[in-house]
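Reminder to self: tokens first, then the designed residues, so the page reads top to bottom the way the pipeline ran.
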């Protein structure tokens, strides 16, 4: 049993290439793509797969490797859900849409951002440590993040929808990081995929612990939106940035609230 209130590295299904940190199994039918600093997730059900977030463009290679470790291919992917429209989450979305006709789903309030029609407005980084930020930027260089294509066509969903895709995630709108930021609750996997509503690692300064993610449009709104997670239970809290959290949804939210909106990119001490 994993002790409460700790981060865990995803279970490795075979020897890991340290440079790419792959492949990674979290639980049956639940896998991660990416090194943790930037993550995508895979939900598998009856041999069909849903991707949650598309990271950076160069992570497509990691996606193919993880699917192979699962005994699957991109032909088994039925949908790609974006938790929001920021560039470090839409990375390979256009490629898989164009090459495999995989539908791309996003909340209606972030659809224009994913299509490149809305730049997302001003965002603050919070506290910065240059070496940590350089690490994130270097990952972006290696993974093509500075040439991220926008998504040509997206389908949209609203708050409260249960999506008809493998895993049947339920959408919870949590605006603040972006207007259409969405959390996905997947009871069948005992998982809550939080996108950037909660981070467990700051890409801006390297700190770890549940926090409002750096580069949030409205940190105060992001904090208030976490009220919408009250009463939800999940073994796995899976962020877009940082390691899985297993200390419970309530404890993660409590720690974020303790830091307050000024704690963006800085967990409670």
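Designed residues (269 positions):
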């Amino acid at each position: 049993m994993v002790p409460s209130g700790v981060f865990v590295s995803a279970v490795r299904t075979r020897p890991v290439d340290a440079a790419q940190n792959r492949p990674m199994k979290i639980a049956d039918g639940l896998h991660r793509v990416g090194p943790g600093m930037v993550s995508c997730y895979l939900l598998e059900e009856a041999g069909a797969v849903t991707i949650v977030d598309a990271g950076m463009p160069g992570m497509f290679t990691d996606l193919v490797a993880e699917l192979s470790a699962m005994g699957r291919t991109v032909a088994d992917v039925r949908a790609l859900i974006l938790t929001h429209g920021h560039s470090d989450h839409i990375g390979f979305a256009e490629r898989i849409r164009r090459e495999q006709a995989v539908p791309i789903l996003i909340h209606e309030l972030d659809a224009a951002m994913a299509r490149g029609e809305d730049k997302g407005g001003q965002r603050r980084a919070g506290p910065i440590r240059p070496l940590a930020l350089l690490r994130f930027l270097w990952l972006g260089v290696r993974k093509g993040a500075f040439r991220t294509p926008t998504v040509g066509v997206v389908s949209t969903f609203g708050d409260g929808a249960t999506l008809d895709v493998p895993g049947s995630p339920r959408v919870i709108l949590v605006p603040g990081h972006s207007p259409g930021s969405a959390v996905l609750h997947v009871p069948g996997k005992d998982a809550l995929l939080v996108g950037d509503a909660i981070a467990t690692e700051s890409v801006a300064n390297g700190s770890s612990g549940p926090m409002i993610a750096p580069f949030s449009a409205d940190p105060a709104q992001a904090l208030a939106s976490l009220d919408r997670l009250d009463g939800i239970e999940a073994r796995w809290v899976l962020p877009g940035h940082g390691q899985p959290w297993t200390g419970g949804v309530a404890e993660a939210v409590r720690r974020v609230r303790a830091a307050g909106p000024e704690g963006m990119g800085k967990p409670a001490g």
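The chain has six helices and 13 strands.
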